[in-house]
TrEMBL record:
Any one Pfam family match given in the protein's UniProt record, by short name: AAA_16
Entries under PANTHER family matching the protein: ATPASE DOMAIN-CONTAINING PROTEIN (PTHR34301:SF8), DNA-BINDING PROTEIN-RELATED (PTHR34301)
Region of interest: Disordered: 1-20
Protein name: Orc1-like AAA ATPase domain-containing protein
Positions of the Orc1-like AAA ATPase domain: 17-192
């Protein structure tokens, strides 16, 4: 008998150790909503670099919402013409199998939104098409219709004994400004007019979500931004040990230490090293132990995977100034580096970094860390760049 690996590289994590603080804060909001029927008045956005665990966190939120008998709508922004139409579509699908009388209330609200967005052109059934064509410009006046749609959906959900409605939006940085504006105004109106509407919105996205949202909306205080960071060592150890233990397989202490050190807190690497160690241990049966030598063999494989990932990301660096910036950062070291120092190393003023910075963030190569600092998204990226470009290791 062999046991397949319980690790999840490239897929949503089944459990999210290291995220208990985020989930406690979110659960508190969900409790408030479901127990008192009240609006969650701020839109929480957990943002972080690729592979840090945003989607996995948001799926945990979804589970917690279901545990509190809330209905949920999940939307990945950027997948269709607009975020608001995608939410409208989600609402329609949520109520699809409910009794006609309930369904019709949502359908009516939906048709009002459609009419508004399509400019009342008869026969244009899909908001999405209109939204796509005008970039949501017509949506300007559609905030009220969007609100009515949410209200109708929440009310019929309550008739179905749901405690409320939770909207979950992944990849929010890909949302278009018109939708972000519509949503933030809707929340602003709810805040003063409908405090007893049990609805909540939780979002996740790349670091640029913050600037994308702030550029689109004028009332950015409706949003609560939280940075999602790498896992602390304890959480990475739990992420490795727990799935194995559930299958009756142990990790030796030095194997766990080596794997945790290797992954350096990056969730994607945690799963990769776990999966490969599992394989090198021969898809262990209950009672077996994963040992240090398995981790060492695994590290060699993961190294290859990660180098491929780095190579793929670096291949997106096409402009000279971007490459210069990557090299300057790699020379400066492995952790966060000051923008000021990067600019100085490039012999440029700090504000000349704006454009390349934006593009490198978009390519998943660097990310904002604390204020005025930038860093590579994945541990080991700086060292890889130094190796490929034959740069000296940073002093100190
Ligand atoms: N708390 C966690 N502990 C251990 N592994 C995790 C944790 N969260 C996520 N992972 C794993 O890390 C990898 C990336 O997770 P996920 O897809 O949720 O990240 P993401 O931030 O949404 O990535 P992307 O930006 O590419 O969408 C997956 O392999 C997932 O199984
Ligand atoms: Mg994701």
């Amino acid at each position: 008998m062999v046991q397949p690996s319980p690790y999840t590289p490239g897929a949503v994590a089944r459990e999210t150790p290291g995220r208990s603080r985020q989930l406690a804060e979110i659960s508190e909001r969900l409790d408030m909503m479901s127990a008192t029927g009240r609006l969650v008045s701020r839109i929480r956005v957990d943002h972080g670099p690729r592979g840090v665990g945003k989607t996995s966190l948001l799926r945990q939120v979804e589970q917690r919402a279901h545990a509190r008998d809330a209905a949920t709508i999940w939307v990945t922004a950027g997948e269709s013409a607009g975020l608001v139409p995608a939410i409208a579509d989600g609402a329609e699908r949520l109520v699809r199998r409910w009794p006609v009388k309930l369904r019709e209330r949502v359908a009516t609200a939906l048709s009002h939104l459609e009419l508004k967005v399509t400019g009342g052109v008869p026969g244009v059934a899909s908001i999405e098409a209109a939204w796509g064509k005008t970039g949501g410009r017509r949506a300007r006046g559609a905030t009220r219709e969007f609100e009515d749609l949410l209200v109708a959906t929440v009310e019929v959900a309550q008739e179905r004994q749901f405690s409320g409605l939770v909207l979950l939006i992944d990849e929010i940085q890909a949302a278009e400004p018109a939708s972000l504006r519509t949503i933030s105004y809707a929340w602003q109106h709810f805040q003063s007019e409908r405090r007893f509407l049990p609805v909540a919105l939780f979002a996740a996205g790349l670091p640029e979500s913050v600037s994308v949202i702030n550029a689109a909306v004028s009332n950015s205080e409706r949003f609560a931004y939280r940075q999602l960071k790498d896992l602390p060592p304890d959480a990475a150890a739990v992420a490795l040990a727990n799935p194995a233990r559930e299958l009756g397989v142990g990790w030796s202490a030095d194997a766990i230490d080596a794997a945790v050190r290797y992954a350096a807190g990056y969730p994607h690497t945690v799963q990769l090293i776990g999966e490969n160690a599992w394989r090198h241990a021969g898809f262990p049966n209950p009672g077996a132990t994963i040992r240090r030598e398995h981790v060492e063999l695994a590290a060699a494989d993961v190294e290859e995977d990660i180098r491929e990932l780095f190579t793929a990301r670096l291949s997106k660096v096409t402009r000279q100034v971007e490459l210069e910036m990557v090299l300057a950062m790699a020379r400066l070291g492995d952790g966060p580096v000051r923008r000021h120092d990067i600019a100085a190393a490039m012999g440029k003023p700090t504000d000349a970094l704006g454009v390349p910075r934006g593009r490198l963030i978009g390519a998943g190569i660097i990310t904002d860390s604390s204020h005025g600092y930038l860093e590579f998204t994945v541990p080991g990226f700086a060292a890889f760049v130094r190796e490929v470009h034959d740069l000296d290791d940073p002093q100190g």
